[in-house]
């Protein structure tokens, strides 16, 4: 950062860590702060379909040409830096992909003059590349078992790593419910003169179906486009963050909070595709309900299971239910599959193009029945055959899998759209 002129110090920021919900909370905060009239940078990972999704301003992705310019600028500055002339303790080592990406985001946000940036921690917190910032507010969403080979094999060890985002004098919003973990965070905050604010989850649910949700908290009513009770809890975190920001003089009105929560979008997380599948089958028109969810650890799969159980009344007519399932390396197929085994009729095992477990290994370990393993494009076509016109397809287990399938469907959509346009032009020519 020193070589690049400390771009992260140019703008205010909100720094979000935690096991689950980081991305959703960042998306909601981005929406809320944008509704407050500010120019907002958003940095998240991983991306679903397009790398440029990771770096956004006012919900618009960095362009490829802008990204190229930033990469060239950073590389030129690094190449001109005389690393060899420095003492060993001053030299920087090999730069990782995530470190370079984070630097690119910071340089872009500084160059474009954002008022505030919402930054998602990549992994852990203490040693994460984003942790150079001195944010307005730090956020820890929750603590659960994930990335245990890197962060530790207990919740306490993982909590200590994530507590690395707590900074001296910077308030912490804590979404964790476990009293022992909260006590640990409170102790660290006391040492650093950081005020810990616990999230109020005492909301009342109004409406929850596949079209969205309504809830009330603190005497105010909110609408939320994101699905699942866990997203209402994530919204409670966002409301608390805004309360803390207001206390710092960084004003976010109640109207901005309500509008931002209502308008927030976060693709690939319990995302319903009721319209996208009509043209995606190999043999004509299909219109099953399609849900994409990037749940990729035990807590995420449990929340997905809870959502499906909560929505049973919304799905009474759906008989044929199919899961397209794949996992990243290091995940337990047996434990992850247990959450879905009783909810679906057919299970199709496949794999993403990045960091994927082999589909045959996942199939061997999982507890599914009526199970088939196949390549991704074949998996989608087979799922359509199994569900017919009125079934349901759930795609889950890996964000990379969700992203790869979304990309595949977009490509099919584009090809079919081009074909329909050509047929329309040919028809017009014949008539004229």
Task: Give a structural overview.
It is a single chain. Strand 10 and strand 11 form a beta hairpin. The chain folds into 2 domains: 7-263, 3-Layer(aba) Sandwich (UDP-N-acetylmuramoyl-L-alanine:D-glutamate ligase); 271-420, Mur ligase, C-terminal domain (Protein-Tyrosine Phosphatase, Chain A, Alpha-Beta Complex), CATH 3.90.190. The chain has helices spanning 22-35, 64-80, 97-112, 148-151, 155-162, 179-191, 229-247, 254-263, 298-310, 333-338, 359-365, 376-387, 399-431; strands at residues 12-17, 40-43, 55-57, 60-61, 116-120, 137-140, 172-174, 196-198, 204-209, 212-217, 220-224, 271-272, 289-292, 321-325, 346-349, 371-373, 392-396. Mean pLDDT is 89; it is low at 275-286 and 427-432. By secondary structure, the protein is α/β, with parallel strands linked by helices. 40% of the residues lie in helices and 16% in strands. Helix 1 packs across helix 8 and helix 2 (64-80) crosses helix 3 (97-112).
Concise overview:
With 432 residues, the protein is an alpha/beta fold. It has helices spanning 22-35, 64-80, 97-112, 148-151, 155-162, 179-191, 229-247, 254-263, 298-310, 333-338, 359-365, 376-387, 399-431, and strands at residues 12-17, 40-43, 55-57, 60-61, 116-120, 137-140, 172-174, 196-198, 204-209, 212-217, 220-224, 271-272, 289-292, 321-325, 346-349, 371-373, 392-396. The chain has two domains: 7-263, UDP-N-acetylmuramoyl-L-alanine:D-glutamate ligase (3-Layer(aba) Sandwich); 271-420, Alpha-Beta Complex (Protein-Tyrosine Phosphatase, Chain A).
């Amino acid at each position: 950062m020193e070589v690049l002129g400390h771009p992260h110090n140019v703008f205010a920021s909100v720094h979000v860590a935690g096991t689950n919900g980081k991305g959703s909370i960042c998306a909601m905060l981005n929406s809320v702060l944008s509704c407050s009239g500010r120019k907002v940078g958003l940095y998240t990972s991983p991306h679903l379909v397009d790398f440029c999704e990771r770096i956004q301003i006012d919900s618009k992705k960095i362009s490829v040409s802008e990204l190229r310019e930033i990469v060239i600028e950073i590389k030129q500055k690094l190449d001109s830096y005389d690393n060899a002339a420095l003492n060993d303790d001053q030299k920087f080592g090999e730069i990782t992909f995530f470190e370079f990406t984070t630097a690119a985001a910071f340089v872009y946000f500084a160059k474009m003059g954002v008022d505030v940036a919402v930054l998602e921690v990549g992994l852990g917190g203490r040693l994460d590349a984003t942790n150079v910032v001195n944010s307005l507010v730090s956020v820890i969403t929750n603590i659960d078992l994930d990335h245990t080979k890197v962060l530790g094999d207990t919740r306490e060890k993982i909590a200590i790593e994530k507590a690395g985002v707590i900074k001296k004098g910077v308030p912490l919003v804590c979404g964790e419910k476990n009293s022992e973990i909260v006590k640990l965070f409170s102790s660290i905050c006391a040492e650093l003169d950081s005020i810990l604010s616990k999230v109020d989850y005492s909301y009342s649910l109004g409406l929850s179906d596949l079209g969205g949700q309504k809830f009330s908290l603190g005497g105010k009513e909110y609408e939320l486009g994101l699905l699942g009770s866990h997203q209402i809890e994530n919204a409670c975190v966002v409301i608390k963050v805004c309360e803390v920001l207001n206390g710092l003089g960084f004003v976010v009105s109640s109207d901005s909070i309500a509008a931002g929560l209502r308008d927030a979008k976060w693709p690939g997380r319990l995302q319903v595709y009721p319209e996208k599948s009509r043209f995606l089958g190999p043999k004509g028109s299909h219109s099953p309900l399609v849900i994409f969810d990037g749940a990729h650890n035990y807590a995420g799969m449990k929340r997905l299971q809870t959502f499906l159980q909560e929505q049973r009344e919304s799905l009474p007519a759906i008989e044929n239910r199919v899961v397209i399932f794949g996992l990243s390396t290091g995940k337990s197929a047996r434990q992850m599959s247990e959450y879905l085994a009783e909810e679906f009729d057919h299970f199709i095992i496949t794999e993403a193009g990045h960091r994927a477990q082999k589909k045959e290994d996942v199939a061997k370990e999982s507890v599914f029945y009526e199970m088939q393993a196949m390549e991704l494009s074949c998996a989608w076509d087979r799922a359509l055959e199994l569900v017919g016109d009125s079934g349901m397809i759930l795609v889950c287990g890996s964000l990379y899998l969700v992203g790869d399938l979304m990309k595949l469907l977009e490509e099919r959509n584009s090809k079919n759209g081009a074909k329909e346009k050509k047929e329309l032009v040919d028809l017009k020519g014949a008539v004229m």
